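Before a colleague's protein record goes any further, I have to sign it off. Would you go through it and say whether the fold makes sense for this chain? Take the sequence as given and treat only the tokens as open to question. The record follows directly below this note.
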Amino acid sequence: MPIKKIVAQKSFKWFLGAFLILAALGAVYELSRENKKTDEKMAVMDVHREVVALCLKQFPADNKTNEIKSLRHCVFKNSVFSDDKEFEPLWKNKMAMAKWLRSSVSKERNSFPPMECSYRSGTLVSMLKSAGYEAHDLVIPKNEDNFSDHVVVEVLNPDTQKWEIHDPSYDVNFVSSKDKAPLDIKQMLTIDKDDYKPCNFAGKCGWHLRTDEGIDLTFNKAYWNMAYIKDLNVLYSTDRLDIHAKRNVYGKQLSYCEWRKKWCNNIVELD
């Protein structure tokens, strides 16, 4: 066999071996990173389990339906809304935020952790999961330039075995205007927007309500056009928002699926 061919074969084997080793190391690194994320999430959930116990002392509940509302109310009352960029480094430290919330609920600390909608919803989801509930957060965008969005929670109620929507940022859940039955995300996206209404912790319902922070709830109607479920990587799409139509997104002409490419891998069309 010619020397050049032998050298080429050896070089190929060396490069192949090096590639396989690097690929294996990369896989080990990714697995290690995912395991670390899981460990951190479980550690935060352990703190949130303590928060749940404290919340239910502060806002007792006699059944699972009211327990969900109490936990939502507790997150709302023991945090302050803020989307200021200065808090972004703090939000990345989920353990510190969980401990701050715990100390706020227990009255060991007089200040409340700053949270925007995604953090309040993520906190409620973690608390619900720590208490044994099935829950996930949902991203719901407006049909407007920049596709500004809001984040809410969908939880499976053990009392009814039905999913229902809760918004810890404004301390409300959503029900049918006809019979006050709780609604899930598919219903919220497909029924007429006049056929549902928000209900607060006190049990009062209607679009005339204002939150404890003085916010008019009517603006909330603008969000229920589609929903992305992060835990399931599913996008529920409706004709309320054309995911392929171009809009001005921070100075660029983009469709929703160009703006949120990873969110459009698994689209479910709702009628």
Observations:
- Helices lie at 3-58, 64-77, 88-92, 94-105, 117-130, 185-190, 256-259.
- The first helix runs from residue 3 to 58.
- The two ends are 68 Å apart (CA to CA).
